[in-house]
Design goal:
single chain, 25 helices
């Protein structure tokens, strides 16, 4: 089988996992799933990558459209919310999210990963044991949250509204546990198209109710009501798609087997939460609420391009790259294609956001309150540019079994975050958070070094065209700022001009490569 055709579909066209909160399925799972014979043959010991490619590409376009819809819905919702709510209100929600993000680590302890990656089909006893543990952990989180509320620590920072949002987020955990087992059953059948349906429903309900209540003047407390309704609607929709005989069970042998597998995958997650949620929670305690609101806003908006591109590709790169370990040439080509297409899509989004946030916050009166945080957003976006190419590479290291290497990198990044950022904040104020993140992001070059030790990739050849095109786009955007600031109409024209400048450079430097991949994608869809 020629390596070129076996991996051409990887860099974003085949996005199997449709829900961010649900963990990916490894290719080894598929051998245990009761599917059609030809699919079993394709993913068994005699892996037929062409067949997998065709089957996967059939649903790729639909998934990408759904992903764009969900990200677009979230962006539009936030455009409205940041206009209607105060900076302090956004800070309150961001502060509470850091608390619940930390507690979320203890809500799963790898149970989902263990059941998804189990080679034999899980029994009803397996599901009920996992469900029991999740319910216990969920109610522990509710208890801890209640204790935090009773201590008055949250109210001191956020007022009563923060208490209600924290309670709503905590109460959503027991409800969401009902959807987890249904989601795992669907994912084990590889019926990924169903997984996104509850997410679409719950996000429409969440954002619709949230905007409606904020519009009516309920303020930041609207988040609490929207969170509760979202969790109930999402769990109900998932259970209707995949009913199962809910019950409680507690078998030490079964639990030991599940937890023994799942806990091993939690250390990276723990370090990530120490680096992100715990650190940002500390910032929320130290910084005034208004300044923390600026930081949260900049961080949140800068992540939209990342979530739309990198997050989607990483959903499937781990299981697929794991199966390509036996074929170094195919793995090399797959990683290079992944880098090429991630950069192709992410770089212009990040540059566009960095340039046009300036006229947006000047021309729209309700956005002018965010002008002090413009540089925070720009710096966060530039650091995301590094993350867009380094995160998939660390994921590649995990896929080929180099978990110790990624752990060392994570320890380094966590230590740098806790050392460098406080110094920058002390020296430069809240903008120091984004400056520190940009400075630390340059250490991501180490991920290129470590991957190249095991997979001889040519990263520069995969990235230089997009870097040059992004540079031209940034230059055109900055040069025309005096025009883009005149009116919203001129700003839209500027978006078109800068986007066209990026497209022209890409067409000159990489037209054949992009067109070739698109043709192969379309032909594979017809074959599927």
């Amino acid at each position: 089988m020629p390596p070129r055709r076996s991996v051409c579909w990887l860099p974003g066209w085949c996005l199997w996992s449709c829900v961010r909160q649900v963990r990916v399925v490894t290719m080894s799972d598929i051998t245990a799933v009761d599917t059609s014979n030809d699919l079993e043959d394709a993913v068994g010991d005699g892996l037929d990558l062409n067949l997998i490619k065709r089957r996967s590409l059939v649903g790729a376009t639909t998934f990408m459209a759904r992903s764009v819809f969900l990200q677009g819905l979230g962006l539009l919702s936030n455009l409205v919310l940041v206009a209607l709510l105060s900076v302090e209100a956004i800070g309150i929600y961001g502060f509470v999210l850091q608390i619940i993000g930390l507690l979320n680590f203890f809500s799963d302890v790898g149970l989902g990963s263990a059941l998804i990656q189990k080679k034999a089909n899980p029994t009803l006893q397996d599901y009920r044991n996992a469900f029991t543990i999740q319910q216990i952990l969920a109610w522990v989180i509710v208890g801890v949250s209640a204790a935090i509320i009773a201590s008055g620590l949250v109210a001191q920072k956020t007022g009563p509204a923060g208490n209600w949002i924290l309670l709503a987020l905590a109460m959503s955990f027991p409800v969401l546990a009902f959807r987890t087992m249904s989601a795992i059953m669907i994912e084990r059948r590889l019926d990924f198209s169903k997984l996104v349906i509850p997410q679409i429903i719950e996000q429409i309900v969440f954002h619709g109710l949230l905007i409606g209540m904020v519009w009516q003047g309920f303020g930041v407390i609207s988040y609490a009501y929207a969170i509760i309704v979202r969790s109930i609607v999402g769990a109900t929709a998932m259970f209707m798609l995949q009913p199962w005989p809910i019950g409680l069970a507690f078998n030490r042998t079964v639990l030991r087997a599940i937890l023994g597998f799942g806990v091993k995958f939690q250390l990276n997650d723990l370090l990530a939460r120490i680096k992100d949620q715990l650190f940002f929670l500390s910032l929320g305690i130290i910084l005034p609420l208004r300044e923390f609101g600026f930081v949260h806003w900049g961080k949140l908006w800068s992540q939209y391009p990342y979530n739309l591109t990198v997050q989607n590709v990483m959903m499937i790169s781990f299981p697929v790259f794991s199966r390509l370990q036996h074929d170094p040439a195919a793995l090399k080509k797959a990683v290079e294609k992944m880098l090429f297409f991630i950069a192709l899509l992410a770089f212009p989004l990040l540059i566009g956001m960095s340039v046009f946030i300036i006229p947006l916050t000047e021309l729209v009166v309700s956005y002018r309150k965010w002008q002090p945080a413009v540089w925070t957003l720009i710096l966060f976006s530039l650091s995301i540019g590094w993350g867009a190419v380094s995160s998939p590479l660390t994921n590649t290291l995990n896929a080929i079994g180099q978990i110790n290497t990624t752990l060392k990198l994570m320890v380094m990044w966590t230590a740098l975050t806790w050392v460098v950022t406080p110094l920058m904040v002390w020296w430069l104020g809240f903008n120091g958070v984004a400056i520190a993140e940009l400075a630390i992001s340059f250490t991501s070059v180490l991920s290129f070094y470590f991957v190249s030790k095991y997979v001889p990739i040519n990263a520069w050849d995969s990235l230089w065209r997009q870097l040059l095109a992004a540079g031209v786009m940034a230059a055109v955007g900055v040069a025309g700022l005096s025009l883009w600031r005149l009116s919203l109409g001129w700003m839209v024209v500027g978006m078109g001009v800068t986007g066209a400048s990026y497209a022209v450079v890409i067409a000159l430097l990489a037209r054949d490569r992009v067109v070739g991949e698109l043709r192969l994608f379309l032909s594979s869809r017809r074959l599927g």
